[in-house]
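Operator note (shift B, R.M.): manual run for Phosphoglucomutase 2-like 1 requested after the automated queue skipped it. Running by hand, logging everything below so the morning shift can see what happened. Input copied straight from the record, untouched. If output looks odd, do not overwrite the archive copy; leave it for review.
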Amino acid sequence: SEDGGSPAAGDLQPQYSCSSLVAAGRQDDLRKRLCCRMSFGTAGLRAPMGAGFSRINDLTVIQSTQGLHSYLSRCFPDLRDRGVVIGFDSRGQEESGCSSQRLAKLTAAVMLSREVPVHLFSTFVPTPYVPYAVQKLGAVAGVMITASHNPKEDNGYKVYWCNGAQICSPHDREILCCVEEQLEPWSSSCWEEELVETSSLRTNPLADISRSYMEELTSLCFHRNLNRRCPLKFVHSSFHGVGHDYVQKAFQTFGFAPPIPVPEQKDPDPNFSSVICPNPEEGLSVLELSVLLAEKENAPIVLATDPDADRLAVAEKSEGCGWKVFTGNELAALLGWWMFSNWKDAHPDPEDVQKVYMLSTTVSSKILQTFAREKGFKFEETLPGFKWIGHRIHELAQAGNTVLFSFEESIGFLCGSWVLDKDGISSAAVVAEMASYLYHKHLNLNQQLHIIYQTYGYHLSKTSYVVCEDPPTINSIFSRIRNFGGTGSYPKTCSGIQIVHVRDVTTGYDSSQPDLRSVLPVMKSSHMITFTLQNGFVATLRTSGTEPKIKCYAEYCAAPGNSDVSRLEEELQSFMAALLDEFLEPERNNLTRRHI
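Run finished. Output pasted below as returned.
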């Protein structure tokens, strides 16, 4: 039905029904809901729950799963032997009855109606469990119903390929084509969520996967005996999501006492009742309850996983300076240092480092690149989105390489390579062990971060964006940049500083390569240009795939010894302002500035 529900959609509340919008004469809202379909972004399909083809609802999930099945049938002759993995988080919408669990069961029902085995988790799980299960069970694909840290109104449909990494091109395009070819639900069985309770083709992998995951987690534990004697207390918030039980188990696996849970946020709550926004990346404004509990318990470290537990925020109490919330780039500096240091202790042969890699997305800090130059291991960048990291890890592993650590600046981390997506559960345990080790060295996380920066040079980053509601203006802005000094001539300077390299993944141009062709895949559907400057500045301008924004990322990679942090921050601030003014011309183009 066009209302996006089951055949009984008329029983749903008006907020979920297109008929109520017709009655109210809300034509613009109807067009937005019915005249376009969702497409795969950096995190799969993601949209508000509600009526319409551009929303997450029973019908669009059934249609997406039919398209996925059709594509998998073409790619995998053994689909009916290997099956698919399906997981879900704890999101739900009381007024419509739409929940992640219900959508997961409908996803399973579509597959079961075509006699495809389904490994459906019996309860909500962290997102990393799905890609992990795909690999462990040999499934052809996985689906996770989640909107991660999005507002409570949203939900999503994340698809993983047989290698355990999120799908990317061309699979995403082909699946959407298959969806368009068969929009009518195949049969009444597709609506029957109860099918998962009666079908012999449905299994529940929860116990086996959880046990196996925790066993493999020990590969990231380097100081278990020290952990057992750790006097530090840790506070953990799961942000009303799925992370509580799993972080507790991960701590026990590492030999720690369980972290102290924030009681108001420990249990799943689809309304995210105690936070303004369920995104721990927002900093102290959303960590208030965690910090209050930490003060009360004399716990110096707060760990916060987002609602689907694939991302991790960390805050540390500093003597006389309140609480420091680490950025994703700062945590990556610590985790990169930690993972390589422990690997090196176990691999003293200098030759071994030749097959070691670390990865990050291109808009993230270059600190791993700096480590790589000094330590001799290899570093690579990917396009934004952990799906690109996951696929590259798989390729490198197939060639006999070891990927120690990967990250994206939006607090997404992966230690090791046995899960091919960011993982807040394992990262929380690793951060706790790192903090415990440093405590025994009479250091804390922030002190170690400054030691790293003093050794390798400060890497300070700043992110901003401008809002532009007019797509032609955005295209005009990037066209001007690409023809800044004449046709096909990019800018030569910014803020009076010489630009030494330009990479434009929209056109495939990279001035740093001998053939002037970008190593990264060409992405014609969006704009993204990176500038490397003579004095250590790196800046990227990119459009958002889901919002009317141009995002601006800038980093100052200072030389070792250049440690006047206040001056470096002032120079970075000045450069960011010049970048916006010179290349985006906010006033002339009626752009609204925002700072993150």
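Quick read of the result: Confidence is low (pLDDT under 50) at residues 1-15. The longest strand covers residues 459-467.
Leaving this for review. - R.M.
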